[in-house]
Amino acid sequence: MTVQADNQRQESPDLADQTCAACGSSNLRFVVNVPQVPAFCNVLLDNAEAAASVRRGDIQLVYCEGCSFLFNGAFDASVLAYSPDYANSLSCSPSFGSFLEETSERLVEKHVLNENTVLELGCGDGDFLTRLCTIGNNRGFGFDPSYFGPTTVDAGNGVTFKDRYYTGDDAVEADLVCSRHVLEHVEEPLEFMQLLAGAASKSRGKLYVEVPNATYMLEKPAIWDLIYEHPGYFTDRALVSVAEKARLSVSESSATFLDQFLYIDADASGSATESHKSKTTSLSRLDQLVSGFRDEVENSVKRWTNEVQRLAVDGKRVVTWGAGSKGVTFLNLVDSSSIEHIVDINPAKHGKFVPGTGQTVVGPEALVEYQPHLVLLMNGAYENEVKEMIRSLNVDATVKVVD
Ligand SMILES: [Zn+2]
User: Fold this and answer.
1) What is the pTM assigned to this prediction?
2) How high is the mean pLDDT of the chain?
């Protein structure tokens, strides 16, 4: 699968009938087309045939000049159907665990959460919520249709999980409302932000929202962050903008987790302050980044395809590390037919197959026998952790971060 090469670039699509779901503007600009990517990057398959025949969809990245939101203009929700197989938890990694712990500690301290109530919309496996409750001896309520653990967990003053969506009718008066990595999955981000604001306003009005950082994706550029599961991509300016449109006042917006994530602390209590937008990336800078992104995507795909082919010709064994969305996107955009395995520390993924390209997922210990020459690490945040693991296994491989 390839992104259009220079001589066969697609014409910019007609965006006349589209509007921005975050602000309603029709002032839109086409950025890049990435056709026929697997619909799910986070659902691994049981066999090679199933991996080859996964559903696919197009990513047609569009930029809103009104609020700096990016979205997939070709997104079709019917291509996606969430199931319990959906495994996007990164909590297996010690680096990621530390990040969740630090974030929980910061929030408990900032909002003086002690013997209080915390609500999380889209709680995933409940790890973050459980930490918030444990640290501050709080009571927690988590909602997520993909949740499949016990309905109550004995942490802090007790955590209750519901395997469904939160609705405005759920009477939870929470001192803090959280939502991590949900907003980029919804087609109507303004509506979801309004739901969060409504949930927060039932009590103290405090809100924490975290998403992947699209400003980082443009700046780095981190093209492997383009995935079909995300109809939306938030620059810092877009996240603040949609929050303010939902009548929230933003007190803090910042990049975190080595700039890969973006968060806001916001308040729904109606104490309107001046707009926080002036503290985000300037419109002119975003304009410049968006203008160059199409070339960045096309050049990265070409460069890595050439590199992987050259290594194969030289007889070098290459594995990628991290069977999450970045790794799956990389294997699908680059010609990766010479790569046999992708490594992941999560045992639940071992023996499974990568959607689209069909590499098998193995644990780090499999490298002892395979002895790769090169490990392509999909996320630089785990560089030290992975190098340490490879050393301890006596595997003599170079680790290279895919940028
Ligand atoms: Zn917009």
Assistant:
1) 0.89
2) 92
